[in-house]
Amino acid sequence: MAKRVAVVLAGCGVFDGSEIHEASAVLVHLSREGAQAEVYAPNIPQMHVVDHVKGQPTAEQRNVLVESARIARGNIKDLATLDVKGLDALIIPGGFGVAKNLSTWATQGKNCSVSKEVEAVLRAFHAAHKPIGLCCISPVLAAKIFPGCEVTVGHDTECEQWPYAKTAEAMKELGCRHVNSQVTEAHVDARNRLVSTSAFMCNAPIHQVHDGIGSMVREVLRLA
After folding, report:
1. Looking at residue 40, which CATH number applies to its domain?
2. pTM of whole model > 0.70?
3. S-S: 177 plus which of 13, 83, 124, 150, CB 3.0-4.6 Å?
4. Which residue among 136, 149, 176, 202 is the active-site one?
5. Which domain holds residue 105?
6. How do residues 202-222 score in pLDDT, each as one tens digit?
7. Helix, strand, or coil here: 221?
8. Which InterPro entries did the record assign (predicted)?
């Protein structure tokens, strides 16, 4: 039986939704490993819409589920319908949508809240001892919900290669243990069954990001 993995998206586009390359890499690696991906997204308005040419917010309004459907080629379900009982694992790609639509990390940092729907899903998989894969910024969701957990967003010292390293410090302040890692690596918190990788938190070639996500996917499936 193929393992069934829920993939939760946060829109379509790095600055206001799911990072498209990360989401695609997750789906490619799940397919390569013979797993069945089931894509979900919350049916809610986006925090805002960003013009990805100018890098500036616009006056448009878009829906997270509708935008996520672009990545899923229309094969997507409302997150409210997710039933953990029929699934083996959960993976949440990164992108600013995680920090804007699935939580308020973008505006409130460590003082953020996680959307009730997303928190309920994360807690359901955790309670069922089913693995959770997180990449890029999405480990902040685990840091907020599961104090004492171990995750990685890459490195905790800011430099040209690691421009978002301050995220690691904020996560530490939430009581989680941040583990420094390379972009091609995934870190496994065996106790909490969390697998994380830095992805585009690192200023790295896209193939290295893709390889790191592959490491994360394989570890998630190993634990499933």
Report:
1. 3.40.50.880
2. yes
3. 150
4. 136
5. 4-223
6. 999 999 999 999 999 999 999
7. helix
8. Class_I_gatase-like
